[in-house]
Amino acid sequence: MKSENSLMALFGGTFDPIHYGHLRPVEQLTQEICLEKVILLPNNVPPHRAQPEASAAQRLKMVQLAVAGNSLFSVDDRELQRDTPSYTIETLETLRKERGTDHALAFIIGQDSLLTLYKWHRWQSLLDVCHLVVLARPGYPRQLATPELQRWYDAHTIEDASRLRQYPQGFIYQANTPLLDISATEIRQRRHEGRDCSDLLPFSVERYIESQGLYRA
Predict the structure, then answer these.
(1) Rounded to 5 degrees, what are φ and ψ at 194?
(2) C-alpha distances in Å from residue 200, one per residue of 17, 21, 47, 77, 83
(3) pLDDT tens digits along 169-192
(4) Which of 19, 160, 177, 183 has an alpha carbon within 20 to 30 A of 138's alpha carbon?
């Protein structure tokens, strides 16, 4: 079924803390695929990775500070209202119901997440509710782990970004976004060592981290 509506994208993450490696590729992506809105979805309890150092309230505040005054972004804190693991597919299914069946919906992930997507809860259902838009990551291969996964990827991948707007879900698009070698792990490590992080994240977020005493040794 074709959709003549605008394309809305969702970008989830632990954001512990949010940084330029999250923001700048997404900002460039909006130009590449003509996005009107990106909704940031901070995770509460990531089921497949270590627990965040910052609290849910602190991570939400950092995300809000990072995009304050930027009309491209909005923040959805629904996953932070849960006290159970955050499963992406369940959140996306809820958002699909809210948006309706005809609206184009995309979920933004990194190449690192694409390579481990088969470990996600009900990952095979993701393309039933949204498109996947993949951001490049430094040092990660383009080839998936098994021939079966590669066939799944090849069967759904498109090169024409306009098709993301024409259909509500079902495609994978590999974006030509910049390779920024920045990670939250690196930022936390720098903080633990008392090193400067001002080149890696917005000043408002850095100031909040200082005020909260986050990521100290």
Answers:
(1) 75, 25
(2) 10, 8, 26, 24, 30
(3) 999 999 998 878 899 999 999 999
(4) 160
Secondary structure class of 63 (helix, strand, coil): helix
131-135: strand order across its sheet: 73-75, 37-42, 7-13, 104-110, 131-135, 172-174, 157-158
Report the candidate in 140, 112, 97, 161 with the shortest Cα–Cα distance to residue 14: 112
Specify the 3-state DSSP secondary structure of 56. Answer: helix
Q: How many CA atoms lie less than 13 Å away from 133 in the CB half-sphere?
A: 30
Q: Tally the C-alpha atoms within 13 A of residue 107's C-alpha that lie toward its C-beta.
A: 26
Stretch (H or E) spanning 61: helix 56-67
Q: Out of 1.10.10.10, 3.30.70.3420, 3.40.50.620, 3.90.480.20, select the CATH number for domain 8-181.
A: 3.40.50.620
Chain mean position to CA 62: 15
Q: Token pair for residue 82?
A: 């849960």
With a CB cutoff of 8 Å and minimum separation 6, the contacts of 74 are: 37, 38, 39, 40, 67
Question: Over the stretch 119-150, which tens digit does the pLDDT of each residue have?
Answer: 999 999 999 999 999 998 878 888 898 899 99
Output Rg (C-alpha) for the chain, integer angstroms. Answer: 17
Region of 26 please: left (phi>0), alpha (psi -120 to 50) or beta.
Answer: alpha
Please answer whether residues 66 and 204 qualify as being in contact, where contact means their C-beta atoms are separated by less than 8 angstroms: yes
Structure tokens belonging to residue 13: 């993450």
Extents of the domains making up the chain? 8-181
